[in-house]
Structures are given as C-alpha cells and as structure tokens.
UniProtKB/TrEMBL annotation:
Pfam families: DUF155. InterPro entries: DUF155 (IPR003734), RMD1/Sad1-interacting (IPR051624). This is YagE family uncharacterized protein. It comes from Xanthomarina spongicola. The keyword Cell division does not apply. The keyword Membrane applies. The chain crosses the membrane at residues 239-258. Residues 44-211 form the DUF155 domain. Keywords: Membrane, Transmembrane, Transmembrane helix. The lineage of its organism: Bacteria, Pseudomonadati, Bacteroidota, Flavobacteriia, Flavobacteriales.
Length: 259
C-alpha cells in the first residue's frame, strides 16, 4: 500500500527556476507542472499554483523536499492544507474507491493522474474557503444596504474588493483545469477511465461549479454596489453644478441691484 499526499505550500512556485535547480529525474514538464521520480517507486509533482504532491515518501523525506523547494516559493506556508489517498496494487484491477485507488501496477502515468487530482482537490478546498469568506463579507454589505438604504463601503475599498474578487477568479481559471483531461488520457482508455473516476470521487466538477457560482453572485452584488456608488457620485456632482449656477445667478442679481 502506498500513500499519496498533496500540500498547499505557497501562493505560487517558480516552475522554470525549480526545473533548473532540482536534480531528480524529470518525467514530465510543461509551463505549470513538473513531475519527478526522486528514487525508485517515489514521485514528486510540483504545480505553479503552490501545490506539491508526494507519492510513497516518508514525512522526513517530504520535509527535506520542501526545504529544497522553498527558495522557489512565493509566500511559503508553515501551516499547510493537505489531502491524502492510498494506492493499492492489485494485478488486472483498476478501481477508484472513497479512501483508496486500486491500480494494476505501479504505472507512472496512473500515479501521476492520482497525484494530479489529489492536488486539484486540495486547491479547490483552498479556493472554496476564500470564496466563502468573500461571500460572507459581501452579504454584510447587502444586509447593511437593506437596513439603512445606503452602502457602508467607500469607493476605494469597493475598488480593492472588486480587484480581489477578479484576482481570485483569474487564479482559478488559470490554475485549475477541472473540465480538461490531460493529453495522456486522450488515446488511452484505462487512463481516461481512471481520470474520470478520480474526478467523480473527489467531486471536483461540482465543487468547482459551487466556487464559480459563488464568484458570480459576488460579482453581481459588486456590480450593483458600483452602480449605486456611481449614481451617488453623479448626484453629488449634479448638486455641485446646481449650487455653482445658483451662486453665479445670485452674484449677477446682486451686481445689478447694487452696482
């Protein structure tokens, strides 16, 4: 029995710099991922969005690896979100269960798919927590609007809040490809089956949709807040113009009466 464990270790990891410095056997790479074989029957998977996944490494070995990766991390986390799943080897069997995956052998591509989906599950947990907090904050403003008939957030704070939401949305779109299947699954029925069952077991698609729906709700609220803010600023400007016109008219009247 083998253990796969994935950690969220940083905001981002520099893939190019990691590749240049890390000495393990590189099995797969692209602009966002590095998949290594560190020793026989041990694998390490590094993702640009701050995830590192391990196959069959001890806790001591994991800590050594993390120390090697730390220089390439943006905001290295000491408190890390994680998730793990067990892999059982059983000849001529391919099955995904709630707490383990049964593989026919130690196929590196099958192992990579398990590590990939485990890592995406951890990332979804992180984004779910972030979007839940953003939704709670948004609801506070909508409740205040309902009670007081006005917003309790300034223009600059609203703009920063909008920027924060858009930044999270962009990160999710860039880093998580829940609905896309890796190329290795396109022409291999076993790999495609494994990938589909992993997504289903980890409930990746539904969790992704929930996050996406939250962001859309938050965006709709923020757009409404912005419209209210713009209307308020427009009304204020109109009053300034009216007051200036009145002052000018009064000046003209005074000038005609007294001069």
């Amino acid at each position: 029995m083998y253990k796969v464990v994935a950690y969220q270790v940083a905001n981002t990891i520099q893939i190019k710099a990691s590749k240049q410095q890390l000495s393990w056997q590189l099995l797969f790479q692209d602009s966002d991922e590095l998949f290594y074989k560190s020793s026989p029957e041990k694998f390490i998977y590094i993702f640009h969005y701050g995830m590192v996944c391990f196959f069959n490494l001890t806790n001591a070995e994991i800590e050594i690896v993390l120390k090697e990766i730390k220089p390439f991390c943006d905001t290295f986390f000491t408190k890390r979100n994680s998730e793990e799943i067990l892999i059982v080897i059983q000849p001529q069997t391919l099955k995904v269960q709630f707490d383990n995956v049964i593989l026919p052998d130690l196929n590196k591509e099958m192992i990579r798919l398990v590590m990939l989906n485990t890592s995406q599950s951890v990332a979804l947990n992180d984004y779910s927590k972030i979007t839940e907090e953003l939704l709670i904050e948004t609801n506070k403003h909508t409740k205040y609007l309902e009670k007081k008939g006005k917003l309790d957030i300034s223009g600059n704070k609203l703009k920063r809040f909008i920027g924060k939401v858009l930044n999270i949305k962009n990160k999710i779109s860039e880093n998580l490809y829940i609905f896309d299947s890796p190329e290795i699954t396109w022409e291999n029925e076993q790999l495609n089956k494994l990938n589909s069952e992993l997504k289903q077991t980890f409930d990746l698609k539904d969790r992704y949709r929930l996050i996406h729906d939250r962001i859309e709700i938050i965006k709709e609220n923020l757009e409404l807040f912005k419209d209210i803010m713009d209307h308020k600023e427009s009304s204020r400007l109109e009053w300034v113009i009216i007051i200036l016109i009145v002052i000018e008219v009064v000046d003209l009247i005074i000038a005609k009466i007294f001069f």
